[in-house]
Amino acid sequence: MSSVEEIIGDVIQAPSVFKNKSILYPEYLPDRLPHREKQLKMLAQVFKPLLASPGETSQRVVLAGSYGTGKTATSRLFGKTFSLIAKNHGLNVKYVHVNCYKARTLPQVIHSIASGLEIFVPPRGLSVREMLKGILDELERKKQYAIVALDEFDYFTAANAGTPAIYTIIRLYDDDMNRKKRMHFIFIVRSPQVLDALEPAISTFFLRNTIHFTPYTTKEIYDILGDRVPQAFFEGAVDDEVIKYISILEGADAEGAGSARTALEILVRAGESADSSGRSMVTIDDVRKAHVVVKPELAMLQDTIETLSPHELIVLLAIVKTLKESSSPFVRIGEVEKTYKMLCENYGERQRRHTQVYTYIMGMRSMRIVQTKSSGKGYRGKSTLIGISNAPLDILERRIEEILTKKLV
Ligand code: ADP
Ligand code: MG
Description:
This protein has 409 residues and is of the alpha/beta class. The protein folds into three domains: 37-213, 3-Layer(aba) Sandwich (Rossmann fold), CATH 3.40.50.300; 216-294, Helicase, Ruva Protein, domain 3 (Orthogonal Bundle); 301-407, Winged helix-like DNA-binding domain superfamily/Winged helix DNA-binding domain (Arc Repressor Mutant, subunit A, Orthogonal Bundle), CATH 1.10.10. The chain has helices spanning 4-13, 37-52, 71-88, 106-116, 128-142, 153-159, 165-170, 200-208, 218-232, 240-250, 260-276, 284-294, 301-304, 310-326, 333-347, 354-366, 393-408, and strands at residues 60-65, 92-99, 144-151, 183-189, 210-213, 331-332, 371-374, 384-387. It binds adenosine-5'-diphosphate and magnesium ion. Residues 71-72, 151 line the site of magnesium ion. Magnesium ion (MG) binds next to helix 3.
């Protein structure tokens, strides 16, 4: 038996597909954000007056978009870069990022802003107004400007719905028009609807000043992953086909929700799956396995297949076996039918006609067991391509064979 030291040592020394895994973590801030150029430009437009006429107005802008669309990364990268540019203009601008999921009450938010600005505010004994005044005075003394990003602002509005707390920040300068405007805001929300609950004047202002982050398309996810892969993986570890497949799984115009975060997570898990099998390359089946881990709701597939008829199960088994042999994400229906014919002979079942097999496949597609697409150019004639993304093939194959044996006796 191996000693504990050997067990741990083996794992630590085992080769890995990753050159630098942390490049793929959500908290890593890349120095480029493909397909967010437009949003960065709009942010620059909003904060341009801060350089041209510092202190004249307080800028406020909303970033809105669903999970994983790059709102946080864009805001951080903008803040970091804008501060640098401002410095070259001789202006002291500090970017502060506050997560309202963690700081939901007004005093917590103000404390987070203060600590981000490295300004001391006593933990208790001061009113909200006094705290804010303390921060603004200190900014004045330091001749500093602040861009405050309130991320996950949905949580703040939900926790403070109908209370004046919401307006304290939004209306910071309203009753002190003559003060130099040193504090500026980026409000980050998932859904712009949360802003409808605010006073009409404010929600109208917000809606007019919203920068939208749309879910990423297949091509956009492909570009985003493609940009990270060479930094994160050793050369040759991740095939173009793997990146393409993940893009289809997560692209908003294909199977997914368009989240770069989910796509990156599938990529990390797929790499880990290759590592744990001691392989130097990530396979399509690693991606399938990762896909189920990242989206556990897909595991339902295992129950769904129980409801299939024996003949549908044979067709599904044919798809699984053909996919396994090809090691690509999709196979042509013609190839599946060849395997299917063989399986029918093995199981002593009468072979169904092409149109019937096609109908079975479309049925399983509507149950989200398989995915289909039309072969584009490059194939002779048009053909239906079939893939399975919601389970690793080995596990699925064993499961189908089990159920078939039960059902066919
Ligand atoms: P959100 O805040 O909208 O939920 P994030 O900004 O946290 O999304 O992005 C999620 C992950 O995806 C992060 O790891 C981020 O670096 C990455 N990401 C998002 N958009 C892009 C992009 N356009 N280019 C490169 N990476 C991106
Ligand atoms: Mg975010």
